[in-house]
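Minutes, project check-in
Item: structure for the 302-residue chain
Input as provided by the requester:
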Amino acid sequence: MSRRRMSAVLAAVVIAGSAPVLLPAATASAAPAAAAAACSGYPNWVAGQWYNAGDIVRYTDGRAYIAEHANPGYDPVISTWYWEPYSCDDGPGTPVGNFVVTEAQFNRMFPNRNPFYTYSGLKAALSAYPGFANTGSDTVKKQEAAAFLANVSHETGGLVHVVEQNTANYSHYCDWGQPYGCPAGQSGYYGRGPIQLSWNFNYKAAGDALGIDLLNNPWLVQNDASVAWKTALWYWNTQSGPGSMTGHSAMVNQAGFGQTIRSINGSLECDGRNPAQVQSRVSTYQQFTQILGTTPGGNLYC
C-alpha cells in the first residue's frame, strides 16, 4: 500500500508545504439569529467534560463548535487548536458550510468504512485547506471532492485500512540521512491515514505545514481522525509527487482525473505500467461523481 510512497513524494519533499491556513475568528455580529437557532440541536458545551475529535457542541454564545482534537472540556473560544466554529445553518441532508458532500453521500461512498474515518473528522480537517472542493463552479467543486475521495478509497480499500497492512515494510521508512533523524524510532513512520502517509521526511513536512508535531508523534495520524484527514489534504493540495501538478490543481484547472493518479502513484501505475489499478481508480471516481450528481469530465486516464 504505502511501499510506493517513497517514489510518490520524495521528489516533492523539498517543498516544505504551504503554511497552515487560518480562517478569521468569528465575531459576535457575524452570526445571524437563524444560524444560532439551527445550532440548538447540539448539546451544550460543559467545561471539564471529555470530548472526542468530531464532537459538536453549542457554546454559550449560541454558536456550534466542532472538536478538531480530543480534549477535557477546553473552552472553544479560547482553545482554538482544539475547537473550531462549525456551520450548522443548513437544512437536513444538505452540505454543512461550503462542503459539497453530505454525510449521507459520504456513507454511500464508503458503506464498509472503518469507524475511525468519520465524516465529522473530514469536516474538521477542511479548515486547513479551505480552497479544497470550494474553488470554481459547483461542477468543479464536486469533481474535486469525488477525485480526492476516489483516490483515498483506492489507497485504503474503501476507507477500511487505517495503517499499512504489510508490517514487514515498517522499518523501511526511516531515512537517517535527514538532519532530524527518526525520533519516533526506526519503525515509526509506516503508512497511515487516507493517503497512507509514510517516511520520516513526509511526516516532518506534513507536520510543519499543519502546525502539528508529526515527526515526534506520527501515531496521531492513526489516532486522530481530523489529523489523518489533514495529512491527506496536505498531500492533495501541496504535493505533486511523480506528477507535474497537485491533485487540487489538476481538478481546479481541468487537467483531468488522470493527472491526480499521476501525482499520487504515477510512477507505478501510469503510462501502461499498471492499467488495472488505473481503471480501478477511474471506476471509483465515476461512481462518486454520479453520487454527487455531476459529470466526471475528460482526461480520466494517465
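Outcome recorded: DSSP finds eleven helices and three strands in the chain.
No further action items on this chain.
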